């Protein structure tokens, strides 16, 4: 898949072929990366997840077994001020047949947030820490749990003291291997011979310079030498393969068990923040595939061979800076949540009033559901918080919320505006198999 010709201009189809042949496992996510712990209604959480599952089935011809929870954000069950029990995220995953998700390191081990959640990282998460005095989350008590093992997540709706598990497993991110890429201070992308991301030519927009040094001003960067970078890529792929093997050997020597390493990264690191990163991944996979002490596997395959032996109560958390929800709910973005919660309640009410809509009404309600999902995207508050694209994020957020309300107004007036819904459909064309009833009250 090195070109559009190799994939036949069908990237999901190319990945499907790799999955069908057993080389990779593709997991799903929520529809628009909605930040699930902050959504106001259970129907909204379900709709985000169900839309993601349905999209996966449409593209890959089977149900997903695993999921990437947006921003690794998890919330256990809790009782509202009105005395209503809201289920934990694991309950929704279990209902949809999801068997495994991934979490940040401190969610499993306790202690202070590390890695991405500590903000010492390359890319936009590091930018947050540089822009703000981020409040430090309360330190979680350290515990014996380890990221080398998967755990069943307790069914928190049954209570934190209950012994039963949800049937859903959690795998924690391995911090040592993670920071070899994530770290802004000593991660591979900071290597002096790699291409400098921050300096671009004023005419072509291309980057012709190398990192040169951690404290070197942009005006004094040396020119980039691809052959120098290639040499360092070989060294770094060798080092990472050695590190993985060392980690699993040490764990096996200490426990006698087979250890699992999950190295989770933000995709935009590779080829974007770290220009050489895609080539590095290829080198690492080739080395690990040939390593006598390491077996490349998928989350589902590992769980089938080594089912979790313990049930774990995991806390509310994310891989946002500080380890909690602050990145998506702070003084600069908190105003976004009220309109979202109002729209969720309105969508739920429309689904109740029109349980079997068809024709124009069905088309308008489906498009209203799409606009609400798009308005819920965690990207909008994230971009405002990072300052990367504040105006664009606010504009997109407000557009989707306005579109939702226009469509809802037309339905409530008894005149569903099909022409308007079709015009909005043409703008994004997402989720062709959506069903507005996924927003029905739960």
CATH topology of the largest domain: 7-stranded beta/alpha barrel
Classify the secondary structure makeup into a structural class. alpha/beta
What is the CATH C level class of the largest domain, in words?
Alpha Beta
Give the end-to-end Cα distance, rounded to a whole number of Å: 42 Å
Low-confidence stretches: none
Reported for the largest beta sheet, the result is: 6 strands, mixed
Number of helices: 15
- The CATH H-level homologous superfamily of the largest domain: Glycoside hydrolase 38, N terminal domain
Mean pLDDT: 91
Trace the largest sheet across and list its strands: 1-2-5-7-6-8
Radius of gyration: 23 Å
DSSP strand tally: 8
What does this structure look like?
This protein is α/β, with parallel strands linked by helices and 442 residues long. The chain folds into 2 domains: 251 residues, Glycoside hydrolase 38, N terminal domain (7-stranded beta/alpha barrel, Alpha-Beta Barrel); 108 residues, immunoglobulin/albumin-binding domain-like, CATH 1.20.1430.10. Helix content is 43%, strand content 6%. It is built from 15 helices and 8 strands. It has a 6-stranded mixed β-sheet with strand order 1-2-5-7-6-8. Strands 3-4 form a two-stranded antiparallel ribbon. Helix 3 links the parallel strand 1 and strand 2. The protein is globular. The two termini are 42 Å apart. The model has no long low-confidence stretch (mean pLDDT 91).
């Amino acid at each position: 898949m090195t070109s559009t010709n190799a994939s036949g201009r069908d990237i999901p189809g190319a990945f499907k072929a790799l999955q069908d042949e057993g080389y990779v496992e593709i997991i799903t996510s929520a529809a628009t990366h909605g930040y699930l712990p902050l959504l106001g209604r259970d129907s909204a959480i379900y709709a985000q997840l169900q839309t993601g599952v349905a999209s996966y089935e449409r593209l890959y011809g089977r149900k997903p077994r695993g999921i990437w929870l947006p921003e690794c954000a998890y919330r256990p069950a809790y009782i509202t001020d009105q005395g209503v029990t809201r289920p934990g995220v694991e309950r929704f995953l279990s209902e949809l047949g999801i068997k495994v998700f991934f979490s940040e390191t401190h969610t499993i081990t306790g202690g202070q947030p590390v890695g991405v959640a500590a903000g010492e990282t390359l890319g936009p998460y590091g930018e947050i820490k540089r822009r703000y005095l981020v409040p430090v989350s309360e330190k979680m008590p350290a515990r014996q749990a380890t990221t080398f093992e998967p755990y069943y997540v307790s069914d928190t709706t049954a209570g934190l003291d209950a012994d039963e598990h949800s049937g859903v497993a959690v795998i924690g991110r391995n911090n040592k291997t993670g920071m070899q890429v994530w770290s802004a201070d000593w991660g591979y992308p900071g290597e002096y011979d790699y291409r400098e991301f921050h300096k671009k030519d004023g005419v072509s927009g291309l980057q012709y310079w190398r990192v040169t040094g951690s404290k070197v001003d942009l005006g004094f960067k040396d020119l980039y030498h691809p052959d120098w970078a290639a040499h360092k890529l070989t060294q770094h792929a060798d080092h990472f393969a050695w590190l993985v093997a060392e980690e699993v050997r040490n764990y096996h020597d200490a426990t006698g068990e087979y250890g699992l390493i999950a190295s989770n990264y933000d995709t935009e690191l590779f080829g974007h923040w770290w220009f050489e990163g895609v080539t590095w991944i290829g080198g690492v996979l080739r080395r690990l595939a040939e390593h006598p002490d390491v077996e490349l596997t998928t989350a589902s395959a590992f769980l089938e061979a080594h089912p979790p032996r313990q049930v774990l109560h995991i806390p509310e958390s994310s891989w946002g800076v500080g380890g909690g929800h602050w990145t998506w709910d702070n003084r600069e973005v908190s105003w976004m949540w009220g309109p979202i919660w109002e729209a969720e309640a309105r969508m739920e009410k429309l689904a109740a009033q029109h349980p079997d809509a068809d024709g124009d009404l069905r088309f308008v309600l489906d498009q209203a559901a799409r606009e609400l999902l798009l308005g819920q995207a965690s990207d909008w508050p994230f971009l405002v918080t990072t300052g990367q694209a504040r105006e664009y994020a606010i504009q997109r957020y407000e557009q989707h919320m306005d579109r939702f309300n226009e469509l809802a107004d037309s339905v409530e007036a008894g005149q569903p505006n099909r022409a308007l819904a079709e015009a909005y459909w043409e703008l994004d064309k997402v989720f062709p198999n959506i069903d507005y009833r996924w927003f029905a009250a739960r």
